[in-house]
Heme chaperone HemW (Brevibacterium spongiae), 409 residues
Amino acid sequence: MPAQPTGEVPPLDGSLPASAGIGAADRGLSLYVHVPYCRVRCGYCDFNTYTAEDLGPGASRDDYRANLARELDLSVSTLAEAGAGNREVSTIFFGGGTPTLLAAQVLAGVMDDIRARFDLAADVEVTTEANPDTLDPAYIATLAGAGFNRISMGMQSAVPHVLKTLDRTHDPEKIPEVARWVKAAGLELSLDLIYGTPEESIDDWRRSLDVALGNEVDHISAYSLIVEPGTKMGSMVRRGQLPMPDEDDLADKYEIADAAMAAAGLHWYEVSNWSTGPETRCAHNMAYWRNADWWGFGPGAHSHVGGVRFWNAKHPKAWSDRLLAGDSPAIGREVLDGSTREIERIMLSARIDKELRLDSLAAGSEQAIRTFVKQGLLDGDAADDGWFQPTLQGRLLADHMVRILTEYV
């Protein structure tokens, strides 16, 4: 599990600097709810997650809702004092971990707790991540009744030996059945895929795409496997028990994915995300990419309000102990300067289809844009219209282009 970032120590009450409230009325507000529990810890995962056996009294699933309610109360008062309150919440995202390891009634109860404290937009997007083996029709119906309207399901692969390498425990044969349940309940469905797992063949990847796209899916996220140090998989790669993912193989699989998505009527809107149209994009992730305000609840969750980034204690017991003591669970923060905010704006918006205006870039970047077009990394017609629109090859080299553009900031 990676170390938390370094930063200044925030006040014990979690209060924000006055700068955080400037212009808040013109910014969106989103909520992220981190549920840290997992049935097993996957070998590739470096997220802040814990199995039930890891946690004792005060940090267990039974304590979660009450602890979260304390942080909800804290967030309302903190935002109000900073002049960043009194805004409608546009998106809510339950991530993990596996949020659906909590009883459906608990997730519904958390939504009640949120509604009691925040005004929600009429079209609020409410998503939960889920593993296929945690869902059944009754569970999904309870979520729908509580206001959830989107499920992001961790499919990862349809191939048993790939799932085994990833330490995923669900039965891939269950994916179509669960997808039918989700759609029958009237919820949007997003599937998460991972490509580049050691010993995953091209045919394996095509099989996963075929299964995913055969389920009336609204949205797909497909991420290349990153072998993180400190994980079980990282140790196996270091010892030579598994091969390191090959960059050429990853590029080939990305191109295969993009072609398959397009043939099925899904179009890319961010380098790793495809949807059936603007209305089925993940609005919550768009809020992140647009540097809107969001409050992250739960162990290790990160927040961002008006250029102030702060993060909670990682371990569920440390998080709950601080809340029980009446203190903020935030243990570090960073106040971003103008240059850092501009670099982040470019880094994020350059990955989105027609999000970055060329006339918003720093002086001197014009030559770089002309070079990118000449190299086939940017669409020339879009550039003529003033938009940064990566081609397929440009998406594969998005980080390269960002590095060059941020040199001018």
Q: What stands out?
A: The longest helix spans residues 61-81. The CA atoms of residues 382 and 389 lie 6 Å apart. Residues 338-409 form one domain. The mean pLDDT is 93.
